[in-house]
Amino acid sequence: MDTQTLPPPAEDERTMALLAHVLMIVTSFVGPLVIYLVKRESRFVSFHALQALFWQLAYFLVMMVGMGLWFVFILTMAAGGKSQGPPVGFILSFFAFWLLIMGFWVLTLVLGIVYGIKASKGEWAAYPIVGGWARRVAGV
User: Global pTM?
Assistant: First the structure.
């Protein structure tokens, strides 16, 4: 179904969709999940809440994989040699992992604000990657 043929969303639907994106910044997946469960009958709200929810799930998976790889790297580095101070590889890998976490947090902040504004205007704007998934699940 094309989003052009759907009726424009009501004011409360736009507000709930905005809240799904903004609450994602503060509450992770909890806010979008609650909004999705409460307003599941609205395709507009479902679509936007599912996008935020799927983004948070993808964010969680990337962080868990990154953390697992970092631990494996640290353990292999620790097993490799004995030194008096912290190895340079540990410090650099910690900094790289921290940059990954902060970069995704900033991306989440930007996505929440930008797509929250689009949702408040009644737009069916889709996140990169997870937007298509949300469209299929919401039936749009």
Answer: 0.86
Place of tokens 């890998």: 93
Q: Could you state, in chain order, the average pLDDT of each consecutive group of 10 residues for the chain (140 residues)?
A: 77 96 94 96 95 95 89 78 68 86 93 96 92 90
Per-residue model confidence (pLDDT) at position 6 = 79
User: What DSSP designation does 39 have?
Assistant: S
User: What pLDDT sits at residue 1?
Assistant: 54
Distance, CA of 112 to chain centre: 8
> Cα separation of 75 and 82, whole Å?
12
Q: Which amino acid is at 48?
A: H
Distance from the Cα of residue 51 to its chain's centroid = 8
User: Cβ neighbours of residue 103 under 8 Å, at least 6 residues apart?
Assistant: none
Give residues with Cβ within 8 angstroms of 90, minimum separation 6. 74, 77
User: Which uninterrupted H or E stretch holds 89?
Assistant: helix 88-120
Contact between 130 and 55 under an 8 Å Cβ cutoff? The reply is yes
Measured distance CA(72)–CA(74) in Å, rounded:
5
Identity of residue 51: Q
DSSP class of residue 42?
-
